[in-house]
Task: structure prediction
Amino acid sequence: MTVKVHEKLLLTGAAGGLGQALRERLKANCTVLRLSDREDFGPARAREEVVLADLANADAVDGMVKDVEAIVHLGGVSVEGPFMPILQANILGVFNLYEAARKHGVKRVIFASSNHVTGFYRQSETITADHPPRPDGMYGVSKAFGEDISRLYFDRYGIETACIRIGSSFPEPKDRRMLATWLSFDDLHRLITACLTTPVLGHSIVFGMSDNAVTWWDNSRARHIGYVPQDSSDVFRDAVFARTASPDLADPVAIYQGGGFVKAGPFGL
Result:
């Protein structure tokens, strides 16, 4: 059973893949779910509000955040690409979000960080949240910035944040790498629910993964959150192996945890 502890919850990035997956699920966590994205994605449904906002527009973000009690922030650029769009949405945008949260007294944020913050660790390593960031691109850099600014706003203003380093959240794993990084939609919701309801969140970095047998991430630093995944990539293992070739162990894609992101580029504006 999901404990409803917030009257009004904000979900940014509502038109994206994960936003669509969470739209109905998050209604169990609140009385009213406010949905936001940059472009029009249709009318509000029952128990919803829709507020369109460009994250780079401080005034729009201020209006988006007004009167909500907690924020699930999925909005922004979610792939590697030119720096300027990442700068506007993921760096300026997350600053605008935390400034609006400070002004309106929002005390808890769930920030969609990424495994690409640590993408240049090797797949032969197991890391914890205490390992230093090793971003695999500008997207990863922007998420590392988000983790840092959320830490600042916790230390200075007491805004609690869970930085969820999302692995690969899809209906099922697409390749062998995702057997380690997969996060089911239901487990994503369980993780967000745990972050919204744990009595003391503080500033926490959590790896967003299901209960996969193969994993590169140790989530023990987040035991205080109470997240217990119930799904696993293991049920897909035979099918994934049958349709994919063995990895080339000399290829950086197979060496590093970031996969294809470590070769994306070149960087540009």
Summary: Strands lie at 6-12, 30-36, 48-50, 70-73, 108-114, 160-166, 203-208. The helical segments are 17-23, 58-65, 83-104, 138-157, 178-181, 185-197, 237-243, 252-255. The chain has a mean pLDDT of 96. The CA atoms of residues 204 and 262 lie 26 Å apart.
